[in-house]
């Protein structure tokens, strides 16, 4: 008998009219930024999220870099962020010569808590970057309040959080600025892709210029100026038409994609809940009033040896699972360019014990059942005597 095929950690498949729209983009003879599909994607984001301006970028990383440029981060400035985070919020800060200040996460949200942030603010703090881990919200209204009280910017790294909400309001609309990712591992994809959401209308004109290589080309194209010239700092960050055409096809199917992912997530949760205690696993948590987008499904083990054993057990059963993140405060560049504030106990513990299971649009319900069965066959290590 053939061994069942391995369930990969991620898989990329079209969900709608991707081929048709990419062909149309080619036939329109306009493949650089500012084309029809990019415009449609930006309008879709503005409408769906209720943000005054969305700019499509090559990646979320570019959007984070643009955000740090737009708030005028300078050498010596500090930006507070979680150490349990994807690296590019930190690189965006460090590229401006500013210092990422790594603080611990809350065990309830796996991201920043307003009180931890308030304690880390100094007279050099210019901004806070909150990462909405796993597509769940932080107490983002509280974070905004702390930022407003101190006259600093809040940036939401909502790379994982499209279609998530807190208090009924979309994540990505609480900060002055927010970023999204359309990397192929995200809920809606363009291969590589991102967006900057500009919620603070006062920043729109300047960011339009920065996103157009520092020129007023956008105003020129709208007939607002006669010629375009170099006006400010800037970079080339705007998404071209081919990925935008792919992305717009994904946007059209968004409700279906989001609904299916939520059902996959629900099945993991329902399947694993009865055995979680016996296997020594904790299931995903989220704070009240936060509604997630089923971006990822994780379990937390008791310790690192337990996690490593589960990871290799799943691999033996044909299931690819992965762990992350190596905390930024203990990484070589984190120590060189950033600094830690306060104990980072929860960060270290979560980084040692978190394991992600496969979750993507082409995963079938049978695949989820197979992963759950594989966990059911797992024998956790004995607990150390207290
Ligand atoms: C929280 C977070 N921020 C930023 C990024 C970077 O996104 P991109 O690959 O689009 O630059 C990711 C991607 O994995 C992410 O998960």
Structure description:
The protein has 386 residues and is an alpha/beta fold. It folds into two domains: 18-252, 3-Layer(aba) Sandwich (Aspartate Aminotransferase, domain 2); 254-376, Alpha-Beta Complex (Aspartate Aminotransferase, domain 1). Helix content is 39%, strand content 14%. The protein contains 15 helices and 13 strands. An eight-stranded mixed sheet has the order 1-9-8-5-4-2-3-12, sandwiched between helices. Strands 7-6-10 form a three-stranded antiparallel sheet, with no helix packed on it. Strand 2 (78-82), helix 4 and strand 3 (99-103) form a beta-alpha-beta unit. Helix 3 crosses helix 7. It starts with 17 loop residues before the first helix and ends in a 10-residue tail after the last helix. Bound molecules: pyridoxal-5'-phosphate. Pyridoxal-5'-phosphate is lined by residues 59-61, 86, 88, 131, 157, 159-160, 181, 183, 194.
Helix content: 25-40%
- Detail the poorly predicted runs: none
CATH class categorisation of the largest domain: Alpha Beta
Radius of gyration: 21 Å
The overall average pLDDT, rounded, is 96
Query: Biggest sheet, in brief?
Result: 8 strands, mixed
Cα(first) to Cα(last) distance is 46 Å
Biggest sheet, spatial arrangement of strands: 1-9-8-5-4-2-3-12
Count of DSSP E strands? 13
Cofactors, ions, other ligands: pyridoxal-5'-phosphate
- Tell me the structural class: alpha/beta
- CATH topology of the largest domain, what is it called? Aspartate Aminotransferase, domain 2
Number of domains: 2
CATH architecture group name of the largest domain: 3-Layer(aba) Sandwich
Note the total helix count: 15
């Amino acid at each position: 008998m053939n061994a069942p095929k391995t369930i990969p950690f991620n898989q990329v498949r079209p969900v709608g009219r991707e081929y048709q729209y990419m062909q149309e983009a080619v036939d329109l003879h306009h493949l650089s930024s500012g084309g029809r599909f990019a415009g449609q994607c930006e309008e879709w984001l503005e409408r769906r999220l209720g943000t005054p301006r969305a700019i499509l970028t090559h990646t979320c990383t570019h959007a984070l870099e643009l955000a740090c440029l737009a708030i005028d981060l300078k050498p010596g400035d500090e930006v507070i962020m979680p150490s349990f985070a994807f690296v590019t919020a930190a690189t965006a800060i460090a590229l401006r010569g500013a210092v990422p200040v790594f603080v611990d996460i809350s065990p309830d949200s796996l991201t920043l808590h307003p009180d931890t942030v308030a304690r880390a603010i100094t007279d050099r703090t210019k901004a806070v970057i909150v990462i909405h881990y796993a597509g769940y919200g932080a107490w983002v209204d509280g974070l905004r309040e702390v930022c407003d009280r101190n006259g600093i910017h809040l940036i939401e790294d909502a790379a994982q959080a499209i279609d998530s909400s807190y208090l009924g309001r979309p994540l990505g609309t609480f900060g002055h600025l927010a970023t999204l990712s359309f990397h192929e591992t995200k809920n809606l994809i363009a291969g590589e892709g991102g967006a900057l959401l500009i919620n603070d209308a006062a920043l729109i004109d300047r960011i339009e210029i920065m996103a157009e290589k520092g020129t007023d080309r956008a105003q020129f194209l709208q007939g607002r100026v006669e010629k375009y010239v170099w006006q400010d700092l800037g970079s080339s960050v705007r998404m071209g038409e081919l990925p935008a055409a792919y992305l717009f096809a994904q946007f059209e199917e968004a409700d279906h994609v989001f609904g299916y992912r939520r059902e996959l997530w629900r099945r993991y949760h329902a399947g694993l809940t009865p055995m979680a205690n016996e296997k020594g696993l904790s299931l995903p948590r989220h704070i009240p009033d936060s509604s997630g987008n089923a971006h990822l499904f994780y379990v937390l083990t008791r310790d690192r040896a337990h996690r490593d054993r589960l990871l290799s057990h799943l691999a033996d059963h044909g299931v690819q699972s992965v762990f992350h993140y190596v905390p930024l405060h203990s990484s070589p560049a984190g120590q060189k360019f950033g600094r830690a504030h306060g104990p980072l106990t929860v960060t270290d513990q979560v980084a040692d014990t978190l394991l992600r299971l496969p979750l993507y649009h082409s995963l079938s319900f049978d695949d989820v059942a197979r992963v759950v069965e594989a966990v059911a066959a797992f024998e956790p290590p004995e607990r150390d005597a207290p």
